[in-house]
């Protein structure tokens, strides 16, 4: 499986499709857990390189059920780069069977018969097929998202608070903290933390991004829109 190619279909309501979300988690991954032959190993220092460069996915082959093919499970955890509550944003699990031997330290790529891809988020669990993964592309911001969000929070925290003006309606009760939770080609997600629980709010860009170079203009457009709003947020002084 090439894991590249066609441009992703535009999802409803300006959100990534499940397949795009899976591809983005893989593209930004710095580690993964591999479980095969009953052994569990941690593979670190992926450095944002798509792990599918080492593990190639292939469709299930007819008539292969009688052959001994060890099962393999790849586990990825998507963790928010900012210090929000409940930092795990998503978990991705890819299940399949090995078509060639796997070694953590081997330079050679490993072929894997694809079984299923499972995406788990706060919204629930979904299953993504190999055709959907092959047609989807990772989000163009995925490799840069962590740096962009931490820069926004550490160096421009007042602008994060400014974005609260775009939230309609604001939650009832005081907001203790507002933090950037995620950013993709469709917009920014804020986490509004209250004394009890939190709420996640998506602020869409004026138009979806095609590459990371367009992010500055789109983010500034959100700030400009927020400045034009007059209501005050409920963060404590």
Tell me what the structure shows.
With 237 residues, the chain is α+β, with helices and mostly antiparallel strands. The chain folds into 2 domains: 12-135, Roll (Pnp Oxidase, Chain A), CATH 2.30.110; 145-228, Split barrel-like, CATH 3.20.180.10. Helices cover 20% and strands 32% of the residues. The chain has 5 helices and 10 strands; from the N terminus they run αβββββββαααβββα. It has helices spanning 18-28, 130-135, 145-155, 157-162, 215-228; strands at residues 31-36, 39-44, 55-58, 71-79, 88-98, 110-121, 124-128, 177-184, 187-193, 198-204. The strands form 2 sheets. Strands 1, 2, 3, 4, 5, 6 and 7 form a 7-stranded mixed β-sheet that branches. The longest helix is centred in the last third of the chain and has 14 residues, at 215-228. It is elongated, with a radius of gyration of 20 Å.
List keywords for this structure.
2 domains, 5 helices, Pnp Oxidase, Chain A, single chain, about 30% strand, three-stranded antiparallel sheet, Split barrel-like, disordered N terminus, 10 strands
Quick structural summary:
By secondary structure, the protein is α+β, with helices and mostly antiparallel strands. 20% of the residues lie in helices and 32% in strands.
Q: What is the CATH topology classification name of the largest domain?
A: Pnp Oxidase, Chain A
Count of individual beta strands: 10
Task: Please count the helical segments.
Answer: 5
Structural class: alpha+beta
Largest sheet, in brief, is: 7 strands, mixed
Radius of gyration: 20 Å
Order of helices and strands: HEEEEEEEHHHEEEH
Compute the average pLDDT: 85
Termini separation (Å)? 53 Å
* Helical content (DSSP H or I, runs of 4+): 10-25%
**Overall shape:** elongated
Unreliable parts: 1-12
CATH class wording of the largest domain: Mainly Beta
Count the domains: 2
The CATH architecture of the largest domain comes to: Roll
CATH superfamily of the largest domain: Electron Transport, Fmn-binding Protein, Chain A
Which strand-content bin applies to the residues? 25-35%
């Amino acid at each position: 499986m090439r894991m590249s190619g066609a441009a992703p279909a535009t999802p409803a309501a300006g959100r990534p499709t499940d397949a795009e979300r899976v591809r983005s988690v893989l593209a930004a991954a710095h580690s993964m857990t591999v479980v095969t032959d009953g052994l569990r190993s941690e593979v670190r220092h992926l450095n944002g390189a798509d792990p599918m460069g080492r593990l190639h996915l292939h469709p299930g082959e007819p008539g292969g059920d009688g052959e001994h093919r060890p099962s393999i499970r790849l586990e990825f955890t998507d963790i928010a780069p900012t210090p929000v509550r409940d930092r795990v944003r998503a978990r991705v699990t890819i299940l399949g069977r090995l078509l060639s031997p796997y070694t953590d330290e081997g330079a050679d790529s490993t072929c894997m018969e694809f079984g299923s891809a499972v995406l788990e988020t706060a919204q629930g669990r979904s299953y993504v097929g190999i055709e959907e993964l092959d047609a989807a592309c990772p989000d163009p911001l995925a490799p840069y998202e962590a740096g962009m969000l931490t820069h926004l929070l550490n160096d421009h925290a007042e602008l994060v608070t400014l974005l609260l003006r775009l939230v309609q309606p604001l939650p009832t009760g005081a907001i203790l903290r507002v933090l950037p939770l995620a950013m993709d080609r469709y917009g920014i997600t804020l986490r509004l933390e209250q004394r009890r629980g939190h709420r996640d709010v998506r602020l869409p860009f004026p138009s979806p991004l095609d590459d990371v170079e367009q992010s500055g203009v789109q983010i500034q457009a959100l700030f400009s829109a927020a400045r034009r709003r007059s209501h005050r947020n409920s963060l404590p002084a």
